[in-house]
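DNA polymerase III subunit delta
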Amino acid sequence: MIPADAYLRNPLPLPPIVLVHGDEPWHQQQVRDALWRQAQERRLSERISIEVGADSDWDAIAQQTQSGSLFSAGQYFQLDLPKGTPGKDGAAFFRQWAQQPPADAVLAIFSGRLDGRQLKSAWVQAIEQAGLVIQAREVPPMQLPNWCIQQAQAHGLTLTPDAAALLAERVEGNLLAAAQALEILALRYGEGATIDVPEVRDNVVDEAHYQLFALGDALLFGEVGQALHTLQRLRQTGTDATLIVWLLAREIRLYYQLALGRSAQALKIWRTQQARYQAAAQRLDPARWAAALAQLGEIDQMNKGIRSGDPWIALDGIVNTICGETL
């Protein structure tokens, strides 16, 4: 097993099966992108995404991955395993692939963090023997300033130690937030610039702002676990529930209008996001989106003390609704 940052610095040859586990989203996404680039270099030009749930049919998944392609030289299967536990049938499928992988195909499995017991399981051991296991772990707080300095160098920036310490403090361990902040600094000051405390102080907002954007993304993708985790972090950081109500209202209104048949372009949704919003809008019918919006109004009244109830508990419920989960 190798850490994600080690793999990103020096990618190993792409094996027939890869497991990426961990709960650090920036590392997960960077490894996901790097593996796909390697697959394309191998001329595995057809990428097929599979999301596994509790009721997934592993026989159907096995048939799908073994059927080959009539339209490309090879296939790259990207399998998302949110809970990290494939069950008996899934474990057998992974062991079979590790022992006898199909020709011209690669299986990349992405899961949340696996504990010590899970890492010792037969299916993980089989993957490690036949392929690669990558751990997308968080950067320890003491190492985060140095990580920021290294990432700044990749953007052509020189980040002073004091600036790195301030940036690490503001993002509170969120690598995605740190990476986005460095992109902003690079765009604003240009390659070759030296970034000190004033530049970070003036351009990098605190963690709560990033968490709001992260919540919106999780809702868009229907990632209920990530959305609820982000909501909890916002509560812990003292974020006013009014901001969250505003964000949810904006998103629900967009989904409602799309469900009614309005075009994403007319709603001024970014072109790169239009397909994702259209897919999200199909989780509920227009009547249920309208009901969710009315429920959000009740939550706003709870937050203002006009109505009885805990707004944070109610926000958990509406997040489940937006993600298409039935309570």
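thats it. The mean pLDDT is 89. The two ends are 37 Å apart (CA to CA). bye
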